């Protein structure tokens, strides 16, 4: 096309693809061009506004390191990460939810009933459940990589007071598919807001808070890997998670338990639970590959 106009630019773009372009690449890029071009026309975008957007993207690149990926955070606060999760979830399996930037590789192995909190003080919770398949059968030998904030609202990689494995651990389910541990209640916290994403949240009158949660990555031979989170039903930010991670099946009740109701049958706790505590039951359901 020699004379490009606002009316024919999208078709012209699509016409530029080489014959040997991968069909899926062609589909994705054609759709992207249609939506982007449509967005520019619909909003009648000005040069200044587009320049500002490109500056924001440049800043996003400049601030990104191996430890802090601002592009992932941008995708999270725009709802794109969650939308990708949702359209790739299966209704019979547990919903997936955002991974976030604070997972560490090679977290230490933990025994059934382990004490996750180490020396930290706070409201004690017992977390337990069974990893199951979509027919309700327990899955033995599944690994569950779990991480959470310390009571100060920080993950280990953000906090000089914590070593890198603090509040990170990997459980392996027993012959009944079971896992269990004690910890302190995770707290609501803010996503990093000192960069371009924070600027975007400010400009749109949004807060950077997430409801408190426990992160899970569940893996088992022959099943699809599940990246998810578990939220308490009484968190003030449950209905306004800035990264859109909350799903109905991921919301649990922290059930108050009386002092002295431990140990339970089947395993012992390595952490002392002298006083009252709360209990969460969460059974991750995995989909066969
Ligand atoms: C998190 O839950 O750790 C998280 C998720 C998305 C963005 C920032 C943090
Ligand atoms: Fe988190």
Notes on the structure:
The protein is an alpha/beta fold. It has two domains: 1-45; 74-286, Aromatic compound dioxygenase (Protocatechuate 3,4-Dioxygenase, subunit A). It has helices at 9-15, 23-43, 47-63, 70-77, 80-87, 196-203; strands at residues 109-110, 114-115, 124-130, 132-133, 143-147, 168-172, 178-184, 189-190, 209-210, 214-219, 226-232, 251-252, 255-257, 277-281, 285-286. Strands 1-6-5-10-11-12 form a six-stranded mixed β-sheet, with no helix packed on it. It has a five-stranded mixed β-sheet with strand order 2-7-3-14-13, with no helix packed on it. It binds benzoic acid and fe (iii) ion. Fe (iii) ion (FE) binds at residues 100, 102, 213, 215.
CATH overall fold name of the largest domain: Protocatechuate 3,4-Dioxygenase, subunit A
- The proportion of residues in beta strands is 15-25%
| CATH homologous superfamily classification of the largest domain | Aromatic compound dioxygenase
Bound molecules: benzoic acid, fe (iii) ion
Number of domains: 2
Main sheet: strands, sense, barrel: 6 strands, mixed
SSE pattern, N- to C-terminal? HHHHHEEEEEEEEHEEEEEEE
Name the strands of the widest sheet in spatial order: 1-6-5-10-11-12
Helix content: 10-25%
| Main CATH class of the largest domain | Mainly Beta
Q: What gap, in angstroms, lies between the N and C termini?
A: 46 Å
Mean pLDDT reading: 93
State the shape.
elongated
Radius of gyration from the alpha-carbon trace, in angstroms: 23 Å
Which architecture of the largest domain does the CATH hierarchy give at level 2? Sandwich
GO molecular function: dioxygenase activity
Family: Belongs to the intradiol ring-cleavage dioxygenase family.
Protein name: Dioxygenase
Cofactor: Fe(3+)
